[in-house]
Predict the 3D structure of the following.
Amino acid sequence: VQLVESGGGLVQPGGSLRLSCAASGFAPGRHPMSWYRRSPGKERELVADLSGTGFSLVHIDSAKGRFTLSWDDAENTYYLEMNNLNSEDTGEYYCYCLGAWGQGTQVTVSS
C-alpha cells in the first residue's frame, strides 16, 4: 500500500486548500481512511475519518463545517477540502489507510 499526498502550501487566513492522498497497491474501491495533522508544538491529532461506505466524520471541533472529505473512484484518490483556514490549521497533514502512512504535506496559514 502506498499513499502519496499533495496539495499543501502557504495560504492566507480565510483561504482554502484541497489536500490529495493518492492510493495504490490495494484493491480498487474506497477503504476506510483517516487524515491526521501535527501542528507546531503539539502531538499528532486525528482530523477526520472517511468510512468505506462514504460516511465522514470531522473530529476537530474548530474544523467542523470547514473541512470536507471525499473520494474519487476513477483517480483512487482521497481528498480533504479545507475552507476558511486560520492559523490553528497550520501543520503537517498525513493520510492513513490500511496500515500505511503518507509522507505528509505541509499546510501553513499566514498573512
